[in-house]
């Protein structure tokens, strides 16, 4: 069996972890970053060192800020960048990808694979690769500086879905050559709609806007998610679950997710969150212009709302949070974000969407 | 000229002030309150004493918790209760009012006169009085206990509008027998849409929900209305002004209102609010279940949104605040509040509404 060659797109926390891990496992890795300075820093030694759950220092096959160099002749393109950049990287990759490659968004947030696939088609990509997305990043990790990464843990299971859907098993099998954690799921709605960040980030940020902009020190989860705010999150979560049902995805609630991810018990979501020891030390931002809004709204709440609209499910609480995010940041996430148009679903009926998702 | 007889509906702060002021001016006053205990307390001496801008102690003609006793044979019915109770008091008064009386809501909030008029018609009131509403309460006052009121000031001008509109001048002329401050305006949209509380109360409360429910001490205006929250208020205010324009009412902005009400200057609404010395000492609530939400949403934001809908003006920011208020308080203010149905405007065209407002 030919040893797979990987592209790693993005030399942030997760990109560092994938690059070192794959190289330690004996795979050839091309590491790309859009930032020439970061690439320059990495090329000084050409090495990445891991500490924590994985230990070792490796030389990376290729470090580059040229996307064509990074992806030509590789088998699997692991995209490990903030979801708001999925569209621009897809556009940049479109001239160079080929139909025997697999793009994997780690993770896709909501609608990542759909958005990337739509861009590849719009760019008239001659030979379209499989586009896969995961529900989460394999690693809990942090890169304190270029060339170093602290890996505090690896998830036991990462779900991967694909477009076309029937390719999920093949994608998972290939990834399993490096990572036993990847497991195929039948629909990208399973990965796309399991967007817990979209539930936990924008609403508490907006409902603590006064505190945040007053630059008050507060514990994001323990002080910021009060009982009424937790109840509001559950309301948004019910909307998400209803959208999932209409799209054939039977999803766990955020409250259930806390149970199996953190092992916490409690009568309410509020009680569970108060019991998550991993949240100790996590403070609220001191600016509203942060990823909890400008990332989780356009690639989380907007596509949730838009998918709901496409299948006749109303999402009034989610919509209200998007609207206030727009006003507070003076942006229009309905247009910037993953609308039905950007997901390639505009004008499609529920039936057509369900067919697409199961093709 | 026959001396007018007044009913005062509501023995709260404003009701105390009207009762003592009118009696001092030599008018006969019937004072009603829904709460039998409060009536009992007031009846012990039958007197009210004023301190501050008005001073004196008077015996009230009649103090009662029977609505028919309070309003039969009076000329002007001054309603001085929270706006969320306008509907229930209208229903209670319907069997006893007559066409030669005038009901004045002090103030009406948004849509008060419309809501009361609609109830009188629904209740098949045989002889329908003029229903008027003001933009504000004449007094700045506080009743520390039954029978006492501290009047810290009187407004220089109170606008009054009526249904039918052409009666505003007659209403103002009658009220001027007691109060020179009342001035007629041509449309209830002038009084109804000048709802500054609807701009200043719900949004900062919701955007400080975390603080409020954490029972944190903060200054409601100075700390609670941060630059981004002030900008969001201005966005809501633009929506309000657009609704006004479409309904023929050219309204001052909240920012202009701060200029002429408090004499503050500033480049932005944020700057102006920071300069209002009257806001010193005003702290945020320690519960989300307070009048800033459960009053100003159903009788402020809901009718603003509904009137906008009737004339084709979108109010997305206002709607988002209503929606989050619904979720946080687990209520449905779209149904409980002053909807087009409750305002008697359901199914009416813009043209029909404009005709009604100018009749």
Question: Can you give keywords for this protein?
Answer:
18 helices; 12 strands; homodimer; Rossmann fold; four-stranded mixed beta sheet; eight-stranded mixed beta sheet; N-(1-d-carboxylethyl)-l-norvaline Dehydrogenase, domain 2; alpha/beta; globular; 359 residues; 2 domains
The CATH architecture of the largest domain in chain A comes to: 3-Layer(aba) Sandwich
Q: How far is it from the N-terminal to the C-terminal residue of chain A, by CA?
A: 28 Å
What's the CATH first level of the largest domain in chain A? Alpha Beta
> What is the residue-mean pLDDT of chain A, rounded to a whole number?
96
The total tally of domains of chain A equals 2
Helix content of chain A: 40-55%
Largest interface, with counts of residues having CB < 8 Å to the other chain, equals:
A-B, 32 and 32 residues
Describe the protein in words.
Two copies of one chain form a homodimer. With 359 residues, chain A is an alpha/beta fold. Chain A has two domains: 5-193, NAD(P)-binding Rossmann-like Domain (Rossmann fold, 3-Layer(aba) Sandwich), CATH 3.40.50.720; 196-347, N-(1-d-carboxylethyl)-l-norvaline Dehydrogenase, domain 2 (Orthogonal Bundle). Chain A has helices at 13-24, 36-45, 67-71, 86-93, 112-122, 168-176, 188-192, 196-200, 202-207, 209-213, 227-246, 254-262, 269-274, 291-294, 297-310, 316-329, 333-336, 350-357, and strands at residues 5-9, 28-32, 47-52, 56-59, 62-64, 76-79, 102-105, 130-134, 139-142, 148-154, 158-163, 182-184. In chain A, the strands form two sheets. Chain A has an eight-stranded mixed β-sheet with strand order 5-2-1-6-7-8-11-12, sandwiched between helices. A four-stranded mixed β-sheet of chain A has the order 4-3-10-9. In chain A, strand 1, helix 1 (13-24) and strand 2 (28-32) form a beta-alpha-beta unit. In chain A, helix 4 packs parallel to helix 5 (112-122), helix 11 packs across helix 15 and helix 15 runs antiparallel to helix 16 (316-329). The mean pLDDT of chain A is 96. At the A-B interface, helix 9, helix 10, helix 11 and helix 16 of A face helix 9, helix 10, helix 11 and helix 16 of B. Chains A, B: It comes from Fictibacillus fluitans. Chains A, B: Residues 185-328 form the Opine dehydrogenase domain.
């Amino acid at each position: 069996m030919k040893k797979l060659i990987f592209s790693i797109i993005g030399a942030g926390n997760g990109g560092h972890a994938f690059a070192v891990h794959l190289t330690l496992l004996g795979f050839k890795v091309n590491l790309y970053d859009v930032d020439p300075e970061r690439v320059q820093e990495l090329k000084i030694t050409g090495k990445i060192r891991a500490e924590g759950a994985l230990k070792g220092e490796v030389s990376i096959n290729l470090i580059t800020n040229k996307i064509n160099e990074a992806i030509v002749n590789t088998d699997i393109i692991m995209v490990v960048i903030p979801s708001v950049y999925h569209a621009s990287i897809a556009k940049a990759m479109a001239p160079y990808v080929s139909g025997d490659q697999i793009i994997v968004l780690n993770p896709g947030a909501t609608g990542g694979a759909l958005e990337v696939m739509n861009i590849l088609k719009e760019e008239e990509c001659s030979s379209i690769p499989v586009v896969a997305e995961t529900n989460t990043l394999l690693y809990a990790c942090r890169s304190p500086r270029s060339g170093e990464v602290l890996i505090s843990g690896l998830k036991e299971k990462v779900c991967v879905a694909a477009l076309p859907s029937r390719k999920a098993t093949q994608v998972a099998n290939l990834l399993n050559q490096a990572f036993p954690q990847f497991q195929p799921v039948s629909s990208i709605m399973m990965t796309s709609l399991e967007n817990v960040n979209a539930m936990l980030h924008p609403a508490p940020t907006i409902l603590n806007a006064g505190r945040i902009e007053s630059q008050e020190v507060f514990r994001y989860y323990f002080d910021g998610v009060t009982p009424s705010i937790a109840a509001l999150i559950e309301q948004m979560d019910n909307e998400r679950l209803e959208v999932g049902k209409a799209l054939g995805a039977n999803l766990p609630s955020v409250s259930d997710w806390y149970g199996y991810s953190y092992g916490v018990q409690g009568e309410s979501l509020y009680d569970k969150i108060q019991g998550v020891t991993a949240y100790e030390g996590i403070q609220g931002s001191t600016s509203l212009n942060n990823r909890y809004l400008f990332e989780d709204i356009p690639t989380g709440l907007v596509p949730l709302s838009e998918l709901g609209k496409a299948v006749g499910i109303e999402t009034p609480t989610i919509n209200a949070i998007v609207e206030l995010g727009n006003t507070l940041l003076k942006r229009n996430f309905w247009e910037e974000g993953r609308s039905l148009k950007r997901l390639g679903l505009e004008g499609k009926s529920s039936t057509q969407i369900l067919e697409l998702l199961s093709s």
